[in-house]
Every structure is written in structure tokens, then in C-alpha cells.
Amino acid sequence: MKLTVDAIEQHFQKQRQLFGNLADEESFNMIFGLIERYRRLDQESEKLAALNRHYFFKFYNGDLNKMKADCAYLID
After folding, report:
1. 9, 35 in Cβ contact below 8 A?
2. Is the CB of residue 16 less than 8 Å from the CB of residue 28?
């Protein structure tokens, strides 16, 4: 079973509702803050991956061997 960020967030929302006034708001706010930061990082990662694909095809015309030769110092 793979948990998604949305499922994790829903779980903690339910926990917050279940505990009501007994909930530790500071802890829940920290958890939801971490979830939000994860989502932003995930979006940035997707943007960087798209840029990487774009420039790979622009500079190397999809030739993986040419790219490996140019970036050999990074691969070692």
C-alpha cells in the first residue's frame, strides 16, 4: 500500500477532528507545514525534471552517449 501526501494529510485532519479541543495545535500545524513544504518541493522537482528533459533534447538531440561523454566527470 502506497501512501500519498493527500492520504497522509486526510489522516491528520481526521485525527485533529477526533481529538477536538485536546489536539496539540502546535504539533498539527507543524505536520501540515511539513506537508505543504513537501508539496512545494515536489512541484519544484517536477519543474527541474522538465527543464532537464528540455535541455537534454535541445543540446544532445536525445543522444544519451554524447551526454555521458560530456558529463563523464560527474558520473565517476
Report:
1. yes
2. yes
* Mean pLDDT for back-to-back runs of 10 residues, the chain (76 residues): 82 90 88 94 93 86 84 75
**CA–CA dist 49, 9 (Å, integer):** 25
pTM for the model stands at 0.65
Q: Between the CA of residue 4 and those of 22, 39, 41, 69, what are the distances in Å?
A: 27, 11, 15, 38
The CA dihedral of 7, 8, 10, 13, to the nearest 10 degrees, is 180
DSSP 21: G
Reported as type and span, the H/E element at residue 26 is helix 25-60
